[in-house]
Amino acid sequence: MGFGSFGRDRGFWRRYIQCHDQESYDRYGRIKPGKWFFGAYLRFSGFDGIVFQGKSPNPVYLIIRNGKTEIRDAGHLSGKDVHMVEDDLRKELGVGELEVSIYAIGPAGENKVLYSAIVGDRGHVAAHGGAGAVMGSKNLKAVVAFREDPPF
Fold it and tell me: Whole-prediction pTM value?
């Protein structure tokens, strides 16, 4: 996952891009979900992108905050749809709507359905190429990026 400067977006602060090697279709996937906060929050936290390698033995979610990352258990989120995951994570982390950007997968992604999507920020979707199945294959339930002050 990375912010929009990987592509030709002029508004890199508003988009993120997820790229993956898609074995099932033997092609490279690039997704640009709607204009929302994840790309900005990721960049302001000090990251240009994130590479996920390998597979977790248990469902997990990633927190990005203050230039650091933390992986937490997501067993309590398994089987829930993306809206419930967002609500539960906001309660668990004690944050409001604009303090974090959350992108997650639902049951389709967990079950590696080839056309599953990643959904975040109350309905923005990265749906092309089975991106949700890629997260599901890694047991990655969600990615949470905290809003930080811009570094400029």
Answer: 0.82
